[in-house]
Amino acid sequence: MDTFNSEIIAYQISDHPDTKLVLNTLEQLDNLSGNTILHSDQGSTYTSREFFEMARKKGVIRSMSRKGTPADNAPIESFHSCLKVETFYNHKEPIGSNNIVIEMVKNYISFWNNKRIFTKLGNQSPVDYRKSIT
């Protein structure tokens, strides 16, 4: 999530929260400014040598939450809460496959970025706000 406009700029879904997952997500990030900061928790995936090296090569400044301080990740935690409440918790039938989950997340991110308006963005979607200032 770009905290400038709350736009989801990269994501990956996996059965395993491993280093490969974060590397694949980081690989999606192109055309980064020299001041890009990637904030994460202190999980082993974000402290791995592979992640460190890829972030360095992309010119990404790494930032990590303090131990036991999930509030440091409030923007993305808030997004995850909205995702769950607005999709999964409203789903009337049991979700029968990973493909359904993947499609729900993909659709929600598209909605979030392109349709969902934010007061802090002048009642614009994240994408519309980004376009309005460039």
Automatic annotation (TrEMBL):
SUPFAM superfamilies linked: Ribonuclease H-like
Domain of life: Bacteria
Pfam families: rve, rve_2
Sample GO molecular function, one term: nucleic acid binding
Stretches assigned to the Integrase catalytic domain: 1-134
Gene Ontology BP annotations: DNA integration
Gene3D superfamilies, per database record: Ribonuclease H-like superfamily/Ribonuclease H
Protein name: Integrase catalytic domain-containing protein
Organism of derivation: Lapidilactobacillus dextrinicus DSM 20335
